[in-house]
Amino acid sequence: MGKSPDEKTRPHDTQRPEYPNLRHIRLFTAAIRLQSLSAAAETIHVSQPAASQAIAKLGKLFGADLLTRQGNGVSATPSGEILDRRARRALAYLAEAARRMATKSRLSKGLVVDSLERHATVAQLRAISAFAENGSFAAAARALGQAEPSLQRAARDLERIVGVPLFDGAYRSLHLTPDGEMLAARASLTLKEFQAAREELRALRGVFDGRLVIGALPMARTRIVPSAIVAVAAKYPSARIALVEGSYESLAHQLAIGRLDMIVGALRETGVPASFVEEPLFEDELSVVARAGHPLTGIASPTAADLSRHPWVLARQGTPNRAIFDRLASGFPPGAPEGHVETGSLVALRGILLQSDHLTLISPAQVEYELATGLLAEIAFNVPGTRRSIGITTRADWQPTALQQDFRSALMAAIAEKPALQGQRHLG
Questions:
Q1: Which tens digits make up the pLDDT trace of 92-127?
Q2: Are both 363 and 226 inside the same structural domain?
Q3: Is 348 domain-assigned?
Q4: Tens digit of pLDDT for each residue in 87-97?
Q5: Which residue, 10, 64, 155, 160, is most buried by CB atoms nearer than 10 A?
C-alpha cells in the first residue's frame, strides 16, 4: 500500500527524530485489530480516503509497506507487525497515564482516558517530556529547536486535555507536579517506542544505525562495558552508542523514563523499583588497595587497627561499596581518625592513591591496569562480606532491539574473556 522510499532520499536524522501522528497510529492499530481499514476509519471517525492517506503517510515516515490487502480486508506486513507491536506498547503507556490521573481529574474517568487517547499529540508529549528532561521551557525549547511559546502552549494544552494540574509554581520556579512527572515519564516511554520501531524497521531493510544508551556504574565502566562497546561497534559500524555515568539514583531515573536502555554495574539488594528487573552476570569481591610501596604493603597480615591509621578515599554515601566500608570501619579501634575523601570519580581516586598513603576499597578489576603495571597494590587484608552481584538492570516491560540484545551478548563475552574476572563466579 504505497511504495517504500529509497533510503538515500530519506537520511536518518540522528538528532531530531520524526514521530508519527498519534491519530494515524490509532487508525493503523485499529485496522490490524479489525482486519479492515474501513472499519478502523469508522472507529477513529475519519473518512475512507483520509484513512488511506494516513496509512500512506505512516508508510512513508517509516519507509515500509505496513498493510497488505486480503480480499475485502487488510493484514499487517512483516514491517507492519513490528510497528503494530511497538505502537500498541506506546498507546498502552498513554492509557496507563490516563487511568492513573482519572480519579484526580475534573473530568469524568472515561472522559480522561478518551481525551488523552484521542486528542493528545506528539508535539504535546515532546513538550512535557523535554520540560522534564531540561528543567524549564526555555531549555526545552533550545533542546528541541522550537520557539518557547509554542512549546508552552503545547504543554498547557495537554494539561487541559487531562484536566489535572501538570505544572506548579511561577515562571522561573515552574516545576512538574507528581502527576506531571508521571505523565512526562509515560510520554518519554511512548516516544521511545516509536524510535525503537523505526530502528527495527530500518534493520529489517539492512540498515543498522540504531541507538544504544548505556548507564554505567563504576565497576562496569573500566573494562567490561568498553570491551562490549568495541565488539558491538564492530558489528554495527553505523550505530550510535552513548555511555552515561552517574549515581545509581540518577541513572535509575533516566532508565525509568526510557532515556537509558540499561544500567550495567553493581546490583542493589534493596530499594529496587518494582518496574525494574535485575539480571546478575557475575559476582565480584572488593579489596583494600593502595599505592605501590605503601607502608601496609610490607605487612604480611595487617589488622583493622593498621588500616584505621591511614586516610581513605571512599565511595559516595548510599552505594553498596560505601556500606561495606562502613561495616569495616565499625571495627576500627576507638579514636581512629575519621577524615576521608569521598568521590565517585575513578580518575580522581587513582590520582589520590598514587600521590599519597590513602587507602581505598575497590574491585581489583577496576584498577586492573594499575595493579598489573605495579603502580597500585592490594593490601593483604581480607575484608569480610564484600561479595556482590554485578549485572544488568532494565525496565520490566523492556523489549530490546537487535542492537541492544547483541550488546548484552557482548557483555557476557567480555566477562568470559577478562583475566581479572576469571576467579569470580559467573551467573549468566
A1: 999 999 988 888 777 666 666 677 878 899 999 999
A2: no
A3: yes
A4: 999 999 999 99
A5: 155
